[in-house]
């Protein structure tokens, strides 16, 4: 995996982790943006953070 891919995955992890806290720390913002599925961003973060082999396999497949 390239350092560019590592950086992209890390940024998705950061955004996903932050999205978990939107409703708690910024309830007005969350209420104004009900169409944004913040929980999906957090779930994607979990896949990236904890499913490394799955993601690595997908990237290897896409690179071929």
TrEMBL record:
Keywords, in A-Z order: Hydrolase, Nuclease, Toxin-antitoxin system
One term under GO cellular component: toxin-antitoxin complex
According to the UniProt entry, its GO molecular function terms are: hydrolase activity; RNA nuclease activity
Entry-linked Pfam families: HepT-like (PF01934)
Q: Which protein is depicted?
A: DUF86 domain-containing protein
Native organism is: Caballeronia temeraria
